[in-house]
Amino acid sequence: MSLLTLTRIDVDQGGKQVLHDVSLTLERGEIVTFVGPNGSGKSTLMRVLIGAIQPSRGKVTRSAGLKIGYVPQKLHLDPTLPLTVRRFLSLPVRVSHDKTHAALEAAGVGHLCDRQMSDLSGGQFQRVLLARALLAKPDLLILDEATQGLDQPGSADFYSQIEKVRRDLGCAIVMVSHELHVVMAASDRVICLNGHICCEGEPEHVASAPEYRALFGTGTHGALALYRHEHAHSHDDGCSHDHTHKETA
Ligand SMILES: Nc1ncnc2c1ncn2[C@@H]1O[C@H](COP(=O)(O)OP(=O)(O)OP(=O)(O)O)[C@@H](O)[C@H]1O
User: Fold this and answer.
1) Which of 43, 78, 87, 201 could form a disulfide with 205 if both were Cys (CB 3.0 to 4.6 A apart)?
2) What is the CATH code for 4-67+140-248?
3) Lowest mean pLDDT among 79-83, 136-140, 154-158
4) Is the CB–ligand 1 distance for residue 19 below 6 Å?
5) pLDDT score of 218
6) 167 CA to middle of ligand 1, Å?
7) Residue ranges per domain, the chain?
């Protein structure tokens, strides 16, 4: 059975229709990325998936007992507050040391357990937020522009960690991002949103679709092809994704 299905949903906000006639099925273990211009309804759709917004029309069907983990864009913590990573993960509900450690390991930051939250880099902080979302062992992990503010190598590393999370834990992953070339390379399916679903499919298919090109131009297609080439290469020799920086700068 599918994890979650949206059937012909509309969402009205502030007297305006933000989403129109959106239908979507999420399967176990797939990575789906939403792209779309500013104001195209991406965050609104994530809120519908989480259950924070009810659609005005249409139907949302969730599989029984579906567990969702959410990684926000950013989280502001008072920098003067002494708070270790371990304690942060135990707020508001106390979590065992083993579970904390397993979640941090899955997010690629097992070594940061005793560090102060205020000392973490942007990339480390987002991975701790990822670990927090993994604590509940979600079937579906939702990331809403989780790499905003990270530089390009930092984002590429973060998304390669996301692929690892999917491999290790088998959860489905839904992401929103503006970093088309980086995110698309990690996705099984890309959905281009502009108030409605303009086009969807495998990354190459969407990147060459006229609807996508009308919104984003043609520039990202070359970058995507390069990234995919480099990406495959990096698995072979074990080097990092840093070289994507020079390819796409
Ligand atoms: N609570 C609300 N009340 C009124 N309008 C809203 C509300 N939430 C969202 N909107 C409007 O809905 C539209 C879609 O917003 P949303 O944040 O979902 O877009 P987005 O694609 O995530 O944008 P961005 O890429 O800039 O983050 C925007 O025009 C926004 O102003």
Assistant:
1) 201
2) 3.40.50.300
3) 154-158
4) no
5) 63
6) 32
7) 4-67+140-248, 76-137
Residue 52: per-residue pLDDT: 93
Tell me if 140 sits within 8 A of 171, measured CB to CB. Answer: yes
Amino acid at 230: E
Cβ contacts of residue 14 below 8 Å, gap of 6+? none
Residue-level pLDDT at 165: 94
ipTM: 0.96
Name which residue sits closest to atom 27 of ligand 1, judged by CA: 38
**In terms of Cα–Cα distance, which of 167, 79, 166 is closest to 125?**
79
Letter for the amino acid at 44? T
Residue type, 54: Q
